[in-house]
Each structure stands twice: as C-alpha cells, then as structure tokens.
Design a protein that fits this description.
Enolase-like, domain 1, alpha+beta, Uridine Diphospho-n-acetylenolpyruvylglucosamine Reductase, domain 2, 3 domains, globular, Uridine Diphospho-n-acetylenolpyruvylglucosamine Reductase, domain 3
C-alpha cells in the first residue's frame, strides 16, 4: 500500500495568510485544495512537501459569478462538478462544461477543483509510477534522475500537459488572477504555461491562483473532443478545443484551435485561424485545417496508446470538432476518418 509521507497541514483563514505562509516557508510548502493530483503524487514520492497550505475552507475562492453581458468569473476552488452542472456554463461555454465533466470520475470531480486542473502536473509513463518502480528502472530527470527516459539524448523533460480544461480556457480567451505577498496580477491562461515538462508553469511557487475569468461569448461557439482508452477515469491522450464564430453570411470571423496532451504545454494552432477567417466551413476547408493542425502534433511514447496513432487521431478529432461547430454530419466512429 502506498502511504502519504509525513507532513504538516495548515488551514489559513484568508488568501493573504496563505500567501504569507507560502512566502515564509519557500519550497517546503505547497497549496492543496481537492488534492486529487497532489496526494497521489505524494504517495509516489514525486512531490514531498513538508507543509500543506489548505485552501478548501476559503469560501471566497469558490463560486461562479457573472452573466452573458459581463462574462463569467470562476473561483479557483470551484469543483469540476459545479462547473459541469452550472446552467450558465452549459449555455455560454459548453466546451468547458464538457471538459470539466470528462475529468476522471464523479467522485474525483466532486473533490477536484478548476484551479487544480489548471495547475495539473505534467505526466509521463516513466514518471507516474511508484517510487520503487522508478528506482528499479533508473529515475528520470523530472524526479531524482538526470536523463529523460522517453528521449535519453534530450537535454529537457518531455512530460505532457494532460489538463482537460486548459485547452478549452485558452480557446475561450480566459484569464487567471494570481496572488502573492508582492502583488495580485492577471494574465491570459495561455501565458501561464511554457514548453517544459518540469517547470511547466510560469507562475511563481508562492503565487496562489485565485480565479478564472471568461469574456462574454459574443457569438462564439465552442466544443471539446477527448481521446482516451476508456470512457471514464483516464487522462486525455489527445484533447481538441475549438471555438469559432460566424458572421451573417456564414463566413468565419473568429476561430481558435488548441491541442492538449500532445506536448508539455497546450498547442495553439495559429495557422488554423488564418485558414478559417473569412471562409465558409465546408468539408474541404475543414479537411485542410485538420491536416495543417496535425503537423505540429508530435506525441512521444510517454502516454497511453501508440504515439503514431495519437498523431493520426489529431486530424480525425480536429475534423470532428470543426464539423460539429459547422453543423455538418460527423462520421461515425471507425469510418472513414479513423483510417
């Protein structure tokens, strides 16, 4: 049985107190809310903080506020279940409701928070194992070792970003608020990540994620498609978030396409926007966009399913996402786009 290592737990009465504790204790402290990612990592000795700063009791970090005119603000401590079931999210941002509802299982969605899913640790077949398993094969550079076991000649870690909600939030133009003892700042969700399997977040270790803000929809339609072996519990081995709007003539006047689980950070497909703007979403243009979108998708052998298959499925899932938003028929599973 895997057991948690010894640690102290402090439940601060405010965000300011939590920020002060993080600043005072440095790398030995980390925040925890739902704990659905942190506690398993601690059991596997991938993370060994000696002090946990509990945020779950801070009511001002929970809740969904706003409307169609002003947009929506979501507290970082809001559970994934609450987001999935909120009527405003379902109506205005269906992709986010879908992504939140596809994370893991109902029990973990009841505990897991949007803040935790945004800051989800990167994953790899050689990293997400018990301490004894990792010791037996030789530790990787993400924890206790000095080489990447996926790409031994590489100077960097290739662990992948596996959040379901982050690609969607990026496609919707969301921002996050961060608080430390120094300041409170707002940055785009896209600016929170960098292409590094170890240091994958740009936020400082003593910063606390307070909330996520979504702008008004203004005609933007969104969807999310997720590839995984099982229909429940599994992390994505590919996530496709798409958002677009059409003018009165049916031409695309805004388009965003973001891929998740194909690298250490979500990939924004800028070429897709360039190809779609001013165009009608015909099957031909969708096929062309899907082909272009599949090129920067270079999954390695560090996740479930064959990495060649995962790359091919990028084209398939981008096609399905765009056809859904265009109101076109979506080919049944298995044909013809799975070939």
């Amino acid at each position: 049985m895997l057991r948690l290592p010894p640690f102290r737990y402090i439940a601060p009465a405010s965000v300011d107190e939590a920020a002060r504790i993080l600043s005072e204790h440095g790398p030995e402290a980390t925040v925890v809310a739902g704990g659905t990612d942190l506690y398993p990592n601690m059991k596997r000795r991938q993370m060994t903080p000696s002090l946990l700063v509990g945020l779950r009791g801070l009511r001002n970090l929970r809740g969904i506020r706003g409307d169609k005119e002003s947009g929506i603000a979501i507290g970082a401590g809001t559970t994934l279940t609450e987001i999935n079931e909120d009527p405003r999210i379902q109506e205005m941002y269906p992709a986010l409701a879908k992504a939140a509802g596809w994370v893991s299982t109902p029990q973990l969605r009841n505990m897991g928070t949007i803040g935790g899913n945004i800051c989800l640790d990167t994953r790899c077949n050689y990293y997400n194992q018990s301490y004894f398993w990792r010791k037996a094969i030789g530790f990787c550079m993400k924890k206790d070792g000095d080489i990447c076991l996926v790409a031994p000649g590489s100077p960097r870690c290739w662990a992948i970003s596996s959040s379901d909600t982050v690609p969607v939030l990026m496609s919707l133009g969301a921002t996050v608020s961060l608080r430390s003892v120094r300041e409170e700042r707002q940055i785009p969700v896209a600016s929170l990540f960098q292409d590094d399997g170890i240091v994958y977040l740009t936020k400082a270790p003593d910063e606390i994620l307070l909330s996520v803000s979504l702008p008004p929809v203004n005609g933007l339609k969104s969807t999310y498609w997720k590839l995984r072996r099982r229909g429940s519990f599994d992390f994505p081995v590919l996530g496709v978030a798409a958002a677009l709007s059409l003018d009165e003539s049916g031409n695309c006047d805004d388009a965003r396409l973001v891929l998740g689980a194909v690298g250490s950070e979500p990939h924004v497909i800028k070429a897709a926007k360039e190809m779609l703007l001013g165009q009608k979403l015909t099957p031909e243009i969708i096929e062309s966009v899907a082909e272009v979108a599949s090129k920067p998708s270079r999954p390695l052998d560090n996740s479930d399913l064959d990495h060649g298959y995962r790359k091919r499925m990028t084209r398939v899932f981008v096609t399905r996402a765009l056809r859904e938003l265009a109101g076109l028929p979506i080919p049944r599973m298995g044909a013809p786009y799975d070939l």
